[in-house]
């Protein structure tokens, strides 16, 4: 019988190996859960992105199976004091500690925004081009997932997203990436910097999202310092939850996106870029004294006031990160050919999410949708390029149900408003869209 703490005196290598074994079993179990959910909904992997409710169930249950259960089992076997003491969850943090932690998160936000923009402009060396292509595919898959969950949802969908993306993700990821990792790494060193940075790097690496690596690293390291300074895992859980919840709420509301990231796009060396740099430097300078207060658990009022006064500067920084003007879901209403003929269309929904491009084709015979995925890149002379990815419907399908004879087309924006979008391709064909959802 496996009793509490039976492996507490085993070597770090043994405990780490045991944790990896538990995580591997959890991943396998998570895959089995995903297959079971898809069978329960009667869907296959190709049509999964058309069923956001199934994605939420798979994502939530997989996180619990892959991260929470292995963590709890490992803590039970490797710490004689019990699970909650091992993870630092026996006591809830005080209100002032939560205020200080959230204040630090606010002060770091401009730096995170700056690194997000810089990170998306980075490219790997030529000899790693295949690896970069694979990383781009992982990024596109993640963006597709978020787009499907966020776009066009109502209040119930928002609550479900907050539960899964903010609540479950924050709890399960912190249990593993901060809870158990802190315990294992802490057996080899007591250096807080090594512990926090190692946890942050592991946190970013497992996510496999190269183009958000730097901002995720900053947040991951910050959460690691919070745990090391306070000894309480509930503190990074709370900040992680708030960070994810704010992102979900902003992405779900077009007005909030314009408020936080409005404005016209500029080059990386534009005026708003230097505003962002100034905000990042100022926030980082204010961040250090606040962290000293976290370590000493000092009064919260003054530090929280500093963080709140910093918000206007954060908003001006946010203007450098405009909301993509094609963001959202658009329904194709009609196609006007160069000879003046107009074709009424009501079967294709186009979705533009930053670099992601997706459209859905309604098949009357089966009363179902087929999703076609690709990506959007800039082209010359004001045009942008839409390219369908691999493993998309063949040419016969495209010719029958869409106007996509080729897997690549060039468009330019003729008109764009809150409710209407007109695109013209390189052959002069005009596409009229209306806002959907």
Task: Explain the overall architecture.
With 437 residues, this protein is of the alpha+beta class. The protein has 3 domains: 1-87, no CATH class; 91-318, no CATH class; 328-435, Beta Barrel (Lipocalin), CATH 2.40.128. The chain is built from 14 helices and 9 strands. It has an 8-stranded antiparallel beta barrel. Helix 4 (95-120) packs parallel to helix 13 (311-318).
Mind telling me the C-alpha Rg? Answer: 24 Å
Q: Given the structure, what is the number of helices?
A: 14
Strand order of the largest sheet: 1-3-4-5-6-7-8-9
N-to-C CA distance? 55 Å
Shape: elongated
**How would a textbook summarize the main sheet?**
8 strands, antiparallel, barrel
What is the subunit organization of this protein? single chain
Instruction: Report the β-strand fraction as a percent range.
Output: 5-15%
Succession of helices and strands: HHHHHHHHHHHHHEEEEEEHEEE
Regions with little confidence, pLDDT below 50 for 5+ residues: 262-271, 313-323
Domains (count): 3
pLDDT averaged residue by residue: 77
């Amino acid at each position: 019988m496996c009793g509490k703490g039976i492996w507490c005196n085993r070597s770090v290598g043994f405990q780490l190996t045991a944790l990896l074994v538990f995580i591997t079993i959890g991943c396998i179990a998570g895959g089995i859960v995903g297959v079971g959910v898809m069978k329960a909904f009667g869907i296959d992997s190709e049509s999964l992105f058309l069923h956001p409710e199934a994605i939420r169930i798979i994502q939530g249950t997989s996180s619990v199976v892959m991260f929470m259960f292995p963590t709890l089992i490992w803590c039970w076997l490797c710490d004689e004091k019990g699970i909650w003491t091992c993870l630092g969850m026996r006591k809830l943090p005080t209100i002032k500690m939560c205020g200080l932690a959230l204040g630090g998160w606010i002060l770091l936000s401009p730096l995170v925004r700056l690194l997000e923009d810089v990170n998306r402009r980075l490219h790997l060396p030529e000899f790693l081009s295949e690896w970069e292509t694979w990383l781009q595919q992982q990024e596109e898959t993640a963006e597709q997932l978020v787009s499907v969950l966020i776009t066009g949802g109502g209040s119930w969908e928002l609550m479900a997203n907050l539960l899964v993306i903010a609540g479950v993700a924050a709890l399960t990821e912190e249990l593993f990436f901060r809870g158990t990792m802190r315990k294992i790494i802490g057996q080899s060193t007591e250096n807080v910097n090594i512990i926090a940075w190692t946890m942050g790097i592991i946190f970013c690496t497992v996510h496999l999202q190269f183009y958000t690596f730097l901002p995720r690293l900053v947040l991951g390291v910050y959460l690691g310092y919070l745990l090391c300074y306070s000894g309480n895992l509930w503190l990074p859980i709370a900040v992680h939850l708030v960070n994810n919840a704010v992102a979900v709420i902003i992405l779900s509301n077009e007005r909030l996106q314009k408020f936080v990231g409005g404005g016209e796009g500029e080059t990386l060396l534009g005026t708003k870029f230097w505003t962002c740099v100034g905000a990042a430097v100022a926030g980082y300078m204010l961040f250090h004294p606040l962290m000293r207060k976290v370590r000493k658990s000092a009064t919260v009022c003054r530090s929280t006031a500093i963080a709140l006064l910093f918000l206007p500067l954060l908003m001006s920084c946010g203007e450098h990160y405009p909301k993509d003007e094609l963001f959202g879901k658009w329904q194709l209403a009609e196609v006007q050919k160069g000879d003046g003929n107009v074709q009424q269309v009501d079967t294709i929904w186009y979705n533009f999410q930053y670099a992601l491009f997706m459209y859905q084709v309604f098949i009357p015979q089966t009363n179902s949708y087929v999703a076609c995925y690709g990506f959007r890149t800039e082209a010359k002379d004001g045009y942008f390029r839409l390219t369908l990815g691999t493993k998309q419907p063949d040419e016969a399908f495209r010719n029958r149900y869409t106007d996509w004879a080729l897997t690549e087309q060039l468009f330019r924006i003729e008109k764009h408003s809150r409710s209407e979008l007109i695109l013209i391709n390189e052959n002069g064909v005009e596409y009229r869209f209306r806002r959907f959802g």
